[in-house]
Amino acid sequence: MTTGRLTTHVLDLYHGHPAKGMKIELWHKELDGKRQPIRRVQTNDDGRVDQPLLSGNEMKPGVYELIFDVADYFVGQKVDLPDPPFLDRVPIRFGIENSASHYHVPLLITPWGYNTYRGS
């Protein structure tokens, strides 16, 4: 039986390299609308997380949210951001329909814009 997993990675388009050290939170949206925290992680040298954010029995259909600490990352990269920064914490809300599938949610980021998609 194939078990699904949730992964992510972050690419810093401003500097042209992986976003090492970005803090990320994973949340699950409950049926009553409340959000429950699942885990906090930090990206490695390759802008990825060392382990899947969800895998095996943790993969359940539902609505999830990744929150990327973009402003903190760019401050750590010595980028002169306005106060307040244009982008601070970037949330990406997405659905998992098939718990046996691989869901990859990458983030392409600058201090002024971002893009995401369902990767492979």
From TrEMBL:
Pfam families (UniProt xref): Transthyretin (PF00576)
Entry keyword Hydrolase: yes
Catalysis: reaction(s): 5-hydroxyisourate + H2O = 5-hydroxy-2-oxo-4-ureido-2,5-dihydro-1H-imidazole-5-carboxylate + H(+)
Main EC class the enzyme belongs to: hydrolase
Superkingdom per UniProt: Bacteria
Protein keywords: Hydrolase, Purine metabolism
Keyword Iron-sulfur: no
GO biological process assignments: purine nucleobase metabolic process
Domain Transthyretin/hydroxyisourate hydrolase intervals: 6-119
UniProt xrefs under InterPro entries: Hydroxyisourate_hydrolase (IPR014306), Thyroxine_BS (IPR023418), Transthyretin/HIU_hydrolase_d (IPR023416), Transthyretin/HIU_hydrolase_sf (IPR036817)
Purpose: Catalyzes the hydrolysis of 5-hydroxyisourate (HIU) to 2-oxo-4-hydroxy-4-carboxy-5-ureidoimidazoline (OHCU).
Quaternary structure, from the entry: Homotetramer.
NCBIfam families in the cross-refs: hdxy_isourate
The protein's name: 5-hydroxyisourate hydrolase
Organism: Kroppenstedtia pulmonis
